[in-house]
Amino acid sequence: MPGRPGPFVCGQIALALARQPGRLEIDEDEAYRILNQIIACWEHREFAQDEVVVLFGEPPQLQPLDLVLEHAKQRGEPLDLWPRREWRDGIMLTATAARRYLEGCGLAGAPRILREWFSGVLASEPASVRGAAHAPENRWAGAGKQPQPAKGGRKLGSGSVDDETALQRMLKLLAAGKRPSVLAAARKVAAEGKPHQSVDADVSRLRRKFRQRWGTNPPEGKTWADVDVNWTRIGS
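Structure (tokenized):
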């Protein structure tokens, strides 16, 4: 399997580690615990300042989380990273940090993820992230320009469009059996909201983001209602 260049969303790491051996099913309670452990590693300064990054600014760019938080504090606009969904959906570890965490976490799924994600890919990590992770003399290049808060529907870690509410609405529709498929749920939600682009483009974007997070079918033996309950607990 080809390697992945990173950076990696913390929730992505937690879910991958929580996948049950030999199955596609995920132990979401375990994912919750792993995510908490990653957050604790950051709080205890086990990652370098430039190893925990987030999309922020206008236009969104990868920036060190600590730098974003510090500048927000200086502006008198402290950012709240809770509830946990900011870590689950937006905050990322560079490839270097993710690999070090996986090598040291001692979890059963870590060797598999190291094989799948890091098969000769560190050298191909995007230059903007690789420079931050591997060149301390350049880690604060451009730090004099303070990150600007997102505007017009953007939020910390969300990229260009904040679809969090729409994605949760799609999951609720599927969990309640009000729509038969992810595509149908995306069409319903896109029709309800104010268009960001064309309706077709919004449907495509919502479907893609939903698929990346939850897939197009619930795990074997579970329903969308089960996924909704577990995901709500992880984000609380």
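The mean pLDDT is 76. Strands lie at 8-9, 52-56, 61-64, 92-93.
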